[in-house]
Design goal:
The chain has 493 residues and is an alpha/beta fold. It has three domains: 5-91, Translation Initiation Factor Eif1 (2-Layer Sandwich), CATH 3.30.780; 112-290, 3-Layer(aba) Sandwich (Rossmann fold); 300-491, P-loop containing nucleotide triphosphate hydrolases (Rossmann fold). Helix content is 35%, strand content 23%. It has 16 helices and 23 strands. Helix 3 packs across helix 4 and helix 11 packs across helix 12 (335-355).
Length: 493
């Protein structure tokens, strides 16, 4: 089979595979590799088998090439060697980053835990892809910004929901002016940028949803393509914030990017789906994740077991257990069930694990899964504790709702579970039953060391009458007990 020909062109974060005969045997071998290695699966109950779920590869119509993550190039080459294909490997041209000047403000000094991460990110021999998995609160944002000041190239931050927080950090930590930062949020922000050639930002802070819409847009929606945007503005550094939470899109974005320096931030380099985790571990190899094994155990974890007779079938959807359905049953269907649930769980937890132990300005975060549950808990707790400042925090609420002066914040894991820095957080009460490893660790990561030395508490819950809750509890116990200063389970029935 020596006559078969495949050309692989390597870029910073992906490789382009050009196959001469798309109907030939070599194309069949490559497609089989993509299906086996770059396609996640999920179990279909209707057909009682695993079916393809998401593809972590793509096809570029312009170059007529298959695109794969760069770290899958070597496994593919080994597979092709078995068939003695003629393979040509080339190196493509990455974006030439436009040089700019950004400096850190002199008062900001690196903490010991940040020095190693910074060294890892600026190592000239470290390759195009750098990952850091520092524990929440150690300062991933500061390390990333300082790395940008070392490269001194136009940079782009891709983040989901934390655009303003990144902007504030740049203005606080560096000498950059607000006019040098361009926020990409909504199509209009791109069109305004493209319409004025005088706008030449040093830093782009992009909403993940906006970038996703741009990348997936049809021809004609924007005057230039995403790749042309990177080249025209000389983007030399891309920072992917909390990359585990949108891993599929981040990988698809990388298939369309050719940026010289790529930084991936997360406190939780993991994924709860086994087939996705195999792809995740290849894209972000464990040996190259700085700080992933360092963990400071300073949180006490309590798991409370309660009994509320809820039928499993009433809280099960097409894909299995659905906590939103559970919440609907216990909080929104009948007042007597709602009152029993709150009096059995939330109310005593608030009294015993927040009010009785808190000191001045310390806060409590309560997590539920639905927006209307947030509103309900705020109303009910305000009746119970009229002297406390109790605020909701969802996508439509201002950041002031978790600022100093607030006692209790009621939120969802999506709104407050990732990337929100809530100061002086004494206790987190999670009412949500989940088996997502990434989500569990992110929720736990909301608790930071308290300035006065008090021990933060994480309160977990499990309804022993629901089999799914029991399974989730066992999994959570295995995941979080090694991360706790102390871990114990208590029975409330």
């Amino acid at each position: 089979m020596g006559g078969e020909s495949i050309t692989i062109t390597k870029y910073s974060t992906h490789a382009a595979i050009l196959i001469r005969d798309v109907f030939g045997y070599q194309a069949t071998v490559v497609r089989k590799f993509l299906k086996s290695n770059l396609t996640s699966v999920c179990y279909n109950k209707r057909y009682r088998r695993f079916v393809p779920n998401r593809e972590y590869h793509s096809y570029d119509r312009l170059s007529k090439s298959l695109l794969i993550p760069i770290n899958f190039t070597e496994p593919l080459l080994k597979e092709l060697q078995k068939y003695e294909f003629d393979v040509i490997v080339k190196f493509g041209k990455n974006v030439v980053g436009r040089l700019v000047h950004i400096s850190m403000q002199p008062q900001w000094v690196d903490r010991p835990a940040q020095l190693g991460a910074l060294k890892h990110l600026i190592d000239p021999n470290g390759g195009h892809v750098r990952t850091i998995g520092l524990q929440t609160g150690v300062g991933k944002t500061m390390v990333a910004i300082k790395t940008i000041t070392r490269h001194n190239m136009v940079s782009m931050i891709v983040t989901a929901g934390l655009v303003e927080q990144w902007k504030r950090e740049f203005l606080k930590l560096t000498d950059i002016q607000e006019t040098d930062i361009w926020v990409l949020r909504g199509q209009k922000s791109f069109l305004t940028l493209f319409a004025d050639p005088e706008i030449r930002p040093k830093v782009f802070i992009a909403s993940l949803a906006t970038i996703r819409a741009y990348v997936r847009s049809n021809t004609g929606d924007y005057p230039i393509t995403y790749r042309e945007f990177l080249e025209q503005y000389g983007i030399g550094v891309k920072v992917n914030d909390e990359c585990h939470t949108h891993f599929h899109f981040i990988s698809q974005l990388d298939l369309r990017s050719h940026i010289e320096h790529n930084i991936y931030l997360s406190a939780t380099y993991t994924n709860s789906d086994k087939s996705t985790l195999a792809i995740f571990d290849e894209v972000f190899p464990k040996v190259k994740r700085y700080g992933a094994r360092d963990y400071d155990r300073y949180v006490d974890i309590r798991c409370f077991l309660y009994r509320l007779d809820i039928r499993e079938q009433d809280v099960t959807g097409p894909h299995g257990y659905d906590h939103r359905k559970y919440e609907e049953v216990v909080l929104h269907c009948r007042d007597d069930i709602r009152d029993k649930f709150l009096e059995l769980t939330v109310y005593p937890m608030v009294r015993n694990h927040y009010l009785s132990i808190r000191t001045t300005n310390q806060k409590l975060l309560i997590l539920v899964s639905k927006i209307k549950s947030v509103k309900l808990l705020v109303e009910q707790l305000s009746i119970q504790h009229p002297n406390l400042v109790i605020k909701p925090y969802t996508a439509v609420d201002p950041d002031d709702n978790y600022a100093d002066g607030v006692d209790i914040i009621v939120s969802t894991p999506t709104s407050a579970g990732t990337g929100r820095d809530i100061s002086n957080l004494r206790t987190v009460i999670s009412t949500v039953s989940t088996k997502s490893e990434a989500l569990i660790k992110q929720i736990l990561g909301r608790l930071r060391k308290l300035p006065n030395g008090d021990t933060p508490e994480f309160i977990d819950m499990c309804n022993v009458a629901v089999a799914s809750h029991q399974r989730h509890r066992k999994l959570r116990s295995m995941l979080i007990s090694p991360l706790a200063r102390t871990y114990e389970e208590r029975t409330l029935y």
